[in-house]
């Protein structure tokens, strides 16, 4: 019998090893495919079924990133008013509002054009012959001790601003058409009192660009008749930052007639701009801008 050569023996051994490896690998893969996968144990009767963890809630933007509007300002007034009426501390949301940006629109002239002899602080007239609109807006002037009694800082020389009409509503529009006519036809009643104002405090010797004194904001513009809606009046838009009144935050409420009186509140501000708008077209009719350095540092 012929003995195999060494080379043939090595080839035979190598082939046998490859065959064993192929058979073993196939058996391993076949075993993995046929092996039963572990099954989660069934929950026992009466036991709580685990629930997946809830997804994290989206992070809301910081409240200081948003410009406050009429609704936000009136919410601050409501919180400060309730605190004063109940003898509680001023809420944190009121004091934290110091420095927040705001924008508010005040409707005026809702009863239509004023007479030539009218002395209303906020009024308008329209001349149809030459299509000329005349608007007059005069701020209200208060004494500092009316709000910061008993001893207001000597640095405060003047307080000027505006009453917010109809503070019981979030709307910045004139009342519905016909509401004023119904009021005029009704028997005389107690005139409505003003309860919410927004104003700026001026320091003695400070810049006077935003301070008006006896000088109103006035403008004369050409306006076509179709762009005039007398029943909608006009809007005074004020924008700026809320300014704290001492350590009580930017809203100060008082009850000068006692606990039975509804609190009268003032919102402190530093005005950046004031403009007059036509609500019928959303057109800006006039605009005044002011500098920050005119604010009183309290």
TrEMBL record:
Residues 51-61 have a biased composition (Pro residues). It comes from Sphingomonas hylomeconis. Residues 37-50 have a biased composition (Low complexity). This is Uncharacterized protein. Residues 37-64 are annotated as: Disordered. It comes from the Bacteria.
